[in-house]
Amino acid sequence: MSSVVHLKKPAADARGYSIVHRPGKAIVDERAEVVAGLLAAPARIAPKYFYDELGCALYGAICQLPEYYPTRTEIAIFRDFRSEIAEAVGQGGQFVDLGAGDCCKAEAWLPFLNPARYLAVDIAGPEIERALSRMAPDFPGTELVGVVTDFTHGVDLEGLLDEREVTFFYPGSSIGNFSPEDARALLASIHRACATRPGSGLLIGVDGKKEKALLDAAYDDALGVTASFNRNILLHLNRRFGFDFALDAFTHRGFYNETAGRVEMHLEAVSEQVVKARGYERTFAKGERIHTENSYKYTPGEVAALLQDSGFTRTRRWSSPGDGYSVFYAS
């Protein structure tokens, strides 16, 4: 005689949702991580530090800019192919929203997919708590769980998923923020969670390679919102770790590196600056750059190979005209 065992669910309170805080797969001393990056040559800051409260708001503004095509292009694909995508994904089960932010993209899918459990996974706790508070009255039949964690070293939701099928949702071409090697590792961790739950899969949006002028404009807009977003990472480090960066001493650089197949964002020192914080000191020469983000662009064939290398064996694809942006469902 066999029996089905369900994991104990995180307890939702009167708000209609629950919040779980858990360490990422890799235990990281974040201040040491930041210092090591700043001491490197060239200096670098991990893009996860963009997303304090102000950074989340600025990113939301970027997504509305006329130059920033990925968001509206992906939304158009979701709208035009919603029935086909919903049929591929299936209804019920569990829906995991990676890098959920304000949860708006996933929220649009919930009425069509009717998951029993929705997990909003993000490093920005206040952002997902506000989102779940907004969503709770509209989805009383769905268990809403916010998971505050850093999944950049791999997805680990042990104890939060049961044996039912799960759909991982990773929109916005956020996979492009990882190097191909790290993207492969992240996707492999998602595949491992899918492999033990029949009927599971990954719904992911990926931006394609295109003209340099279009990409340069998308990451260096005329209003300077992306520049403010980039410089805000320094303000976040000042507040969180006690650095003394002068924001006006750095200017934003965003451009497409055609050889590497990626957009790069940097902060360039406009004059020499000495940055200090609790025993740490680093001199930045005029013109020296801090590398803050990459956004790799992929052809559809490159995405298919990346998914296959990560363990997925079946894919479906929906794309914008000219294959400039694609949505994949991999299982």
TrEMBL record:
Keywords: Methyltransferase, Transferase. GO terms for molecular function: L-histidine N(alpha)-methyltransferase activity. It holds the Pfam family Methyltransf_33. The keyword ATP-binding does not apply. Residues 31-329 form the Histidine-specific methyltransferase SAM-dependent domain. The keyword Cytoplasm does not apply. Its EC number is 2.1.1.44. SUPFAM superfamilies: S-adenosyl-L-methionine-dependent methyltransferases. It is an enzyme of class 2 (transferase). InterPro entries: EgtD, EgtD_Methyltrsf_superfamily, MeTrfase_dom, MeTrfase_EgtD-like, SAM-dependent_MTases_sf. GO terms for biological process: methylation. PANTHER family: ERGOTHIONEINE BIOSYNTHESIS PROTEIN 1. This is Histidine N-alpha-methyltransferase.
